[in-house]
C-alpha cells in the first residue's frame, strides 16, 4: 500500500460504496420511545446502519489455528496470527478520512519500491470502530462494513486511477460464536510507478464486547505469492 497524502477522488469512493452496499440491507435507528440523543458526525455518517437488535451469528464459521505467535489488539478485542521474517512490525500510524478508523499496530512487508522511491507495502492491521451512542445501539455489520471498506479505499490516494474492482468474497461470518462480516476484493490499479497492477484487500468486522473490531489485510500483486495470507489471518482471528 502506498501512503500518499491525497485522498481518492469522491467518484471512485462512491462507486465502491455503491457496489458494496448493494449486498447489504439497511435498517432504521432506535425505537420511537428512545430518549433523544445528540448525533455526532460519526453517528450521522453510519445512521443507515443502526439497529436495536444484537447482530446474530448466522454466517459461515471462520475456523483455523492462530499458531504459536499472535498479534493481540485489546482495543479491537481481537487476536490474530503473526508471521515471521520478512514481515516486520507495522510502525505507521494512519486513519481513514471519514470514519477516522485508526490503524496503528500489526505487521507490514515491503512488496516493491516505485520508480520515484515510493514504497508499496503489504499490511496486516486492526482497529476498533468508534462508539455509536455509547455502544447503546448495535450496528448492521454488513452495512457498516461497506462504509468501512469504502473509507479505507479513500485513504489510499494512489488509487485515483483505479481501473475496476472484483469482489472475491463477501458476506456474513461467525467467529467464536460472534457475528462477523467479511469482504475480500481485488482492486485493479493504474499507477505507472509500480509493477503491481492490482491489490488484494480484505476487511473483517467482528462484534465483540468492546464494540466492532476490524482486521484489515492488503497484498499488492507484486507479491501475489502472499495472497493466501488473507485467509490465514482471517481464519485465525479470535475474540478476546
From TrEMBL:
Residues 1-28 form the signal peptide. Keywords: Signal. It comes from the Bacteria. This is Lipoprotein.
